[in-house]
Amino acid sequence: MSKSFKFGLIFLVTILLLPITRMMFAESSLSSNLTDWLFSIFFQIVCLGIIPFVLYKLLITKKTSSFFVDTKIKSKISLSIIIYAITIGLCVYVLNIIISTYVQFLFKKAGFTYSSGVNTIFSSPEVLILEIATSAILPAVFEEVTNRGLLLNALTDIKRDSTKLILVGLLFGLVHQNVSQFVSAFIIGIILAQVALKARSIIPAMIIHFINNFLIIMSSYSEQTNDTYYNFLNNLFTIIISYPILTIIIVAFTIFGIYYGIREIDKLQKINHDKNELSSIHFSSHNINSTSKGEDIEDTNDFNYVFFNNNVSKNTDEYEARKPLNPLKKLYNHMPLIIAVTITTITTIFTFIWGLLR
């Protein structure tokens, strides 16, 4: 099995665990709030965290540190990149609200009936804290590990970044297995994948994901408590949605903000990468010179072998991606993802049909 196949297989397992976990908690006699929290904690930590980690060690390598390197968690992120990620997160939130509003309007026009299930009841500050932890912090961490970290590794043999972005966005939209969330999740998935690629890390994507979910939670909390924050946002977005020209201007502004933030993150990471390369070369030259002076280094040739091999190993996935693959081989490598797309597409279509019949 190729590495792409193995990463795809791990991703497929997480897809299959979602409906199973939902059924486990569906018949719970606990309160709606508590059931949702327990479901989120179990699914995020166990199904998107522990199980993929164990499968990684079984299928790919037993080195724990390699998991964090491959999923792009173990990366140095500067304060500037964090600030740009926060800015992108705010833009993504605004874009998400506008997209969701228009999608909801169009779906209702088509006869789609949204679920009348009970949302989180914010009866105390503790409820708000638990909601932030289970619906903002945990998804920001574990969904990014799965939907960006693992999934991008499953697509390493695809040459074009644009193709990777569309596939990651498509799968992120489908894995929600809820047609009402598909469009916004698809677009956000593309943005988060682009951020992860340019940052060479999923940490900025985690920040963006957290900010979007956090602001949605705060909006729901403010709505129930009749807070000024909700009234302000409600009035603001009502005005924006009421005027198509204003909507277009705001969408264009947020898209530019996202584009600018990603571009600057890319620049900063390229500068950091160049600095690291220069430091490595300097370190290598220093050790070679030390050897010529008779200092105690076991074998210069061995050192050079390790140094250059490390550089090659960093680009192994890129090298593999450039190798021409037999179409059947490529199809086989992506079979787990094809199965994942098929399953999630069927369930997503089912939620749409169910909404029309409801």
The chain-level mean pLDDT equals: 85
Structural class call reads mainly alpha
Distance between the termini: 44 Å
How many β-strand stretches? 0
Q: Number of DSSP helices?
A: 14
H/E element string?
Answer: HHHHHHHHHHHHHH
Low-confidence stretches: 295-321
Radius of gyration (Å): 23 Å
Percentage beta strand: under 5%
Percentage of residues in helical conformation: over 70%
User: What's the story with the biggest beta sheet?
Assistant: none
Q: Given the C-alpha coordinates, what overall shape results?
A: globular
Number of domains: 1
In short:
With 358 residues, the chain is mainly alpha-helical.
What does this structure look like?
This protein is mainly α and 358 residues long. It has one domain (3-282, 312-357). The chain contains 14 helices and no strands. It has helices at residues 3-26, 32-59, 64-70, 79-109, 125-154, 161-175, 179-199, 203-225, 228-242, 244-292, 300-314, 316-322, 327-333, 335-357. Helix 7 (179-199) packs antiparallel against helix 8. The protein is globular and about 60 Å long. The two termini are 44 Å apart. Residues 295-321 have low confidence and may be disordered.
